[in-house]
Write a structure and sequence with these properties.
By secondary structure, this protein is mainly beta. The protein has a single domain, classed as monomeric porin ompg (Porin, Beta Barrel). It is built from two helices and twelve strands, in the order H-E-E-E-E-E-H-E-E-E-E-E-E-E. It has a twelve-stranded antiparallel barrel. 46% of the residues are buried.
Amino acid sequence: MKLGRILAAASAIVALASSMALATPSTQIWIPSTDVKSLKDIHIDIDNYMRLSPKSDAGPNYYNLGLSAGVLPFENIKLEVGIDYLTTGFQNDNQFDNHPIYFNAKLGTPEDAFGVKGLPAFAVGAYGLGTYDKPEVNGVSTRQNIVYGLVGKTLPVIGRLSAGGYYGSSRALASAGNPSGTKNNSGVMASWDRSMPEINDKLWLAVDYMSGNNFNGEISVGGSWAFSKQISVILGVVFFNPFYNISAADNGLLPGGKPALTTQVDIAF
């Protein structure tokens, strides 16, 4: 999502970039899911990402307050739209916090839609739709404009498996080691998730993966606990770009920064 200015400041800016990935539609831990909200289904999300390392190159903590809602009255075709306020708490007085508004949307069909038994769920959407794009002025572009497609299927015992891919703005997803115009703006998405009634009906577990030579690449593991029909909380860990080979151009920095502990509170109305 962003790039640099001066090499001395690059560590803070580059690590921060991962935060912009979170203009959040309905997600697993990090990536979108094939779930799409129904009409009048309104959610408030309060997400926190706290670095597990105190080192200067760990990257900042960041916070997201999101509002999303289903807007179509159909059972088999659903559409949700959302808006997010995303910030690092003005750590390092970075320019990205001056443009914290992002938008997202997702259109999809549930499993077994249209009465077709065994039909998987499908979802297409976009997120990271920021409002500012002037990297030539101050190194800042919040318009990742990530477009994705996913297919998901729930299997007996195993749980739900989902897979797909994404394509975004090479300009906004640029980093020192992967500048604009390189293969830095596309990749695959995959996840596993499952409710755990064998333990407790309120427990859900998930693992997700996102590839790509940019700040969004990661593997996440976590789970949620439903305190009621309206309130659930996810606790997880995000490992950014675990398979990435740092080059000399990266200046010793891992895109996305060090691993982060995430808590995500979902309040449904």
